[in-house]
Amino acid sequence: MTPAGPPPTRLGDLSRAAGRRVTLADVPTSAWDDVTPAGIDAVWLMGVWERSPAGLELANANAGLQASFTEALPDLRPDDVIGSPYCVRRYVVDASFGGPEALAEARATSAQPSPASPRRALSA
Questions:
Q1: Could you tell me the pTM of the whole model?
Q2: Do residues 57 and 81 touch, judged by C-beta distance below 8 A?
Q3: Residue 22 scores a pLDDT above 70
């Protein structure tokens, strides 16, 4: 199940700034520079794997979790809850992040040298 809203955290920020959904393939070298301080040559991508629909159902059915979500995000919408990145269905990059092809493109883009970082490797 692919969530309707923008991906969480950094891709969500880039999506809002672009006014459209941004996948891993769309992340420019400058954005990789922003998350890669001088001397760091790797970026570990958290939560890019397909999430379990069963885990999402459990999260949506748990009143305690829902209350904590609403406390953290008062304007919570159903599509804001996408499931736990640790409740993995398959070790395949989720379609909401662009799928395996987007990861391959992101690896190529992030490996391009820039003034801020000569070389980076993405790990997922």
A1: 0.72
A2: no
A3: yes
